[in-house]
Amino acid sequence: MKKLLFAILLGALFVSCSKVPAGNVGIKFYLLGKDKGVDYEALGPGRYWIGINEELFLFPTQRQNKVWSDDEEGNRGFEFQSKEGMKLSANVGIEYQIEEVNVPRVFEMYKKGCEEISNIVLRNAVRDAFNKASSTRTAEQMYGEGKISFIEEVKKIATEKAAEKYIKLNDIYLLGNVGVPESVTIALNNKIKAMQEAEQRENEIRGAEAQAKKDIAKAEGEAKSLLTKAKAEAEANRIISNSLTPTLVEYEKIKQWNGILPQVQGSGASIVNLK
């Protein structure tokens, strides 16, 4: 009988002994009495005796990730409006953390776990941030080059709101691009195409101008070459002309004569001047 009673007491002891695993903290909640409510001392990893008037809740302290995106299971991303009143959407992910020192405060405020807190508290903070940041921007600014500054402002606003709830929001990121109406997508694509074509034409103009300069330089070079050659030939002719004396001409004739007198001669004509 004593052994049976001991076994029952031992079993009750182990049933009431709860474990806080690594990466978590435990929060005691008193169900009755003057201390009813949250115990502000967070319990680190280990085993703890949990009495009949107590409950133990576990909170992860490592970084948590949450994604809100449209899918077949009925999950939804975020919808918001641009400055012009145009309806936009976005699938979003966040990374957040509840630091150990703040776990008792967060639990006392919401009496919920991380999953419920992310789907209610953090979702509301992120939704409000999107609405506020988008209200000062056009659809084109959020879809195009201004997308980075847009999401940075969303992150700033949501981080401040989460901090008010003792939650550390580490990051917000888009899953894909901001969703815009098809008409906006077509208009933006046409604008991008027009810019690319204009840039191509400018490149072609610059190429033509460069080729023209090249052709001009080549023509000027050829002209200078011809002029230099003509001047050289003229100078050579001048030198030759100045060197041609009557004596030199007669000498050249003699050099070229083969010694045979022509068969027909004019009166007084001679191929060689014998004087």
From TrEMBL:
Signal peptide positions are 1-22
Pfam families found in the cross-reference section? Band_7
Q: Sorted alphabetically, which keywords does the UniProt record give?
A: Coiled coil, Signal
Answer whether the UniProt record assigns the keyword Signal to this protein: yes
Concerning InterPro entries, the annotation shows: Band_7
What is the protein name for this chain? Prohibitin family protein
Please list the residue ranges annotated as the Band domain: 19-211
Q: Which residues form a coiled coil?
A: 191-229
Q: Which organism does this sequence originate in?
A: Odoribacter splanchnicus
